[in-house]
Design goal:
Length: 187
């Protein structure tokens, strides 16, 4: 009876496997790191998108309650528009962009943030401290008889990125039109 002795790898086979492994491992590592970097950037843009969605929801709710849009005292069709309107309780509401100082990465940074103020109450920030609003444009929408029927709002934001970190290099732009209630008048 013959005994079977297990055969190992030859030196040539070992060298071939090491060569294949040395080519595949760096390529796989680069692929994983690139995928991870894209995911980080996607997460940053997703946070901006979610924040913008919440802002538009708040603006939509506020405009639904508006009795009058104060077009004559608002600053419209500029990159830093100021929207003034009157809510159902008669309170003046202002949505605008304001520069403020925030502590970011251990240093004070100036950031443009979107805020909402009802009457004489304390303003409420609509954007997060690390989101810089580069554009807040509000434009009137009129029908064929020149009656105010809606407001077109454009919002551009970017993550505060003082260090130039590739993982914080995210921007987001949104544009929508809000239809006004039939009872809303223009002043």
């Amino acid at each position: 009876m013959r005994s079977f002795s297990p055969k190992g790898f030859t030196l040539l086979e070992t060298m071939v496997y090491i060569g294949i492994f040395s080519v595949v491992l760096p390529a796989f590592t680069i692929f994983v790191l690139h995928s991870w970097q894209q995911q980080i950037g996607f997460d940053a843009r997703m946070r901006l998108e979610q924040s913008t969605s919440l802002i538009f929801l708040e603006v939509s709710n506020s405009l639904t309650e508006a009795d009058a849009i104060l077009v004559s005292t608002s600053t419209l069709a500029t990159d830093t528009s100021i929207l003034r309107f009157q809510d159902a309780n008669g309170a003046a509401v202002v949505i605008d962009v304001s520069s403020t100082t925030v502590n970011f990465s251990g240093t004070n940074q100036t950031v443009r943030r979107l805020r909402l103020q009802r009457g004489s109450s304390t303003p409420v920030w609509l954007t997060e401290p690390e989101h810089d609003v580069t554009q807040w444009r509000v434009e009137v929408v009129r029908n064929t008889t020149n009656v105010l029927t809606g407001l077109r709002v454009s919002l551009d934001a970017q993550l505060l990125n003082t260090s130039g970190n590739v993982y914080r290099n995210a921007t987001f732009a949104a544009d929508t039109t809000f239809a006004l209630s039939p009872h809303t008048i223009e002043l």
